[in-house]
């Protein structure tokens, strides 16, 4: 009983030692994998951004090249009241504005449309129009009505102009459309743009039958 031998430690029963475990290099392979994944992610992001930029440039080119430019003009306008007394302008003006989208594959979302009327560079009329979508090769007509009264100060040359036009019965009025639009190609929609349509110095007779607007007096600006 007293002669029992203690079991040797570290498995050295036959006098040979167990070599220490080898340390692997898994951390190095993990670092290389992480770098590769990051590089692949960056390449994907750059490629996606480049594709979106290319698509954006293509859409803008298709929309605004001369043969496919969106066309806007006043088709007819009626003025039944335009009186100015005590620096108050009382007015009743109605107009039809035509918007033509000549593109075959591009639609237009009109998310916001504000119609404004000006006399001697002072705004007297405002109307918010209903948003709508305009399909391919389509013409839409907007019915705009400005009616009411608005403080309007006329002095010097502006007052002289009004008195002259009151005598002639022909008034110089400007119309403007402020818009927020998006273009659509297939299922892809662009960011919003804020173009303006300006029809400056329309000669509108008072209490006459509807008169057609002049195409070359309307300009689309971005």
TrEMBL record:
The keyword Transmembrane applies. GO terms for cellular component: plasma membrane; plasmodesma. Residues 97-199 form the Late embryogenesis abundant protein LEA-2 subgroup domain. Its main location: membrane. GO terms for biological process: defense response to other organism. It is a single-pass membrane protein. Keywords: Membrane, Transmembrane, Transmembrane helix. It comes from the Eukaryota. Residues 1-29 are annotated as: Disordered. PANTHER family: NDR1_HIN1-LIKE PROTEIN 3, OS05G0367900 PROTEIN. This is Late embryogenesis abundant protein LEA-2 subgroup domain-containing protein.
């Amino acid at each position: 009983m007293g002669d029992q031998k203690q079991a040797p430690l570290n498995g050295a029963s036959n006098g040979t030692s167990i070599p220490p475990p080898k340390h692997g290099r898994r951390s190095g392979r993990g670092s290389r994998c992480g770098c590769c994944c990051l590089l692949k992610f960056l390449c994907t992001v750059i490629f996606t951004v480049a594709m979106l930029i290319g698509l954006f440039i293509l859409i803008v080119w298709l929309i605004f090249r001369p043969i496919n430019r969106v066309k806007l003009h006043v088709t007819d306008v009626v003025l039944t009241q335009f009186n100015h007394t005590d620096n108050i302008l009382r007015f009743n003006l109605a107009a039809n504005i035509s918007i033509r989208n000549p593109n075959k594959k591009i639609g237009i979302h009109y998310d916001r449309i504000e119609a404004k009327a000006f006399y001697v560079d002072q705004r007297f009329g405002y109307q918010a129009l209903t948003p709508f979508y305009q399909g391919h090769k389509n013409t839409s007509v907007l019915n705009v009505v400005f009616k009411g009264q608005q403080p309007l100060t006329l002095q010097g040359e502006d007052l002289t102009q009004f008195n002259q036009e009151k005598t002639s019965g022909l008034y110089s009025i400007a119309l403007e459309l402020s818009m927020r639009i998006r273009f659509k190609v297939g299922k892809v929609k662009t960011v919003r743009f804020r173009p303006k349509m300006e029809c400056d110095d329309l000669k509108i007779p008072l209490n006459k039958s509807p008169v057609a607007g002049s195409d070359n007096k309307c300009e689309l600006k971005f």
